[in-house]
Amino acid sequence: HVQLVESGGGLAQPGGTLSISCAGSGFAFGTYAMAWFRQVPGQEREGVASIDKNGKTDYADSVKGRFAISRDNAKNTVSLQMNSLESEDAARYFCTASSDYWGQGTQVTVS
After folding, report:
1. What is the mean pLDDT of residues 45-65?
2. Which of 5, 58, 100, 101 is least crowded, fewest Cβ atoms below 10 Å from its Cβ?
3. Chain segment 1-45, per-residue pLDDT in tens
4. What's the CA gap between 59 and 78, in Å, rounded?
5. Dmax over Cα atoms in the chain, in whole Å?
6. Do the beta carbons of residue 93 and residue 6 sit within 8 Å?
7. 15-40 per-residue burial string, b: 16 or more CB within 10 A, e: under 16
8. pLDDT grade, residue 50 (50/70/90)?
9. Which of 77, 70, 75, 37 is nearest to 54 (CA)?
10. Cβ(21)–Cβ(7) below 8 Å
11. Contacts by 69-77 with C-beta closer than 8 Å and gap 24+?
């Protein structure tokens, strides 16, 4: 049974920090590229950051220099450290394994 479970969302002030994580199970986590997407109601889901199985990362221009994605294949987790948060970062954040599997998301509020 494949699961991706996000955690760590919540409320942060503008300029603040927040870290969210995603725990995977039921699939070969280490062989998948992992990514974070976010979605605001009424808008399309957008890619935020990705990390391939070798640790190579990529970021949306809007978060470069502020967010950092990392993974721990031994623990089957992927994390997103979010710094210098802006009101535009408020969204529901989803982790995905190569878009094959998706979590339910965790809400990030910046206010």
Report:
1. 97
2. 100
3. 999 999 999 999 999 999 999 999 999 999 999 999 999 999 999
4. 14
5. 38
6. yes
7. eeebbbbbbbeebebeebbbbbbbee
8. very high
9. 70
10. yes
11. 69/34, 69/35, 69/36, 71/34, 73/29, 73/30, 75/23, 76/23, 76/24, 76/25, 76/29, 76/30, 77/21, 77/22, 77/23, 77/24
Distance (Å, whole) CA 50 – CA 57: 6
For 11, the token pair is 């409320």
- For residue 71, what pLDDT is reported? 98
Q: Show the tokens assigned to 52.
A: 């391939």
The full length of the chain comes to 111
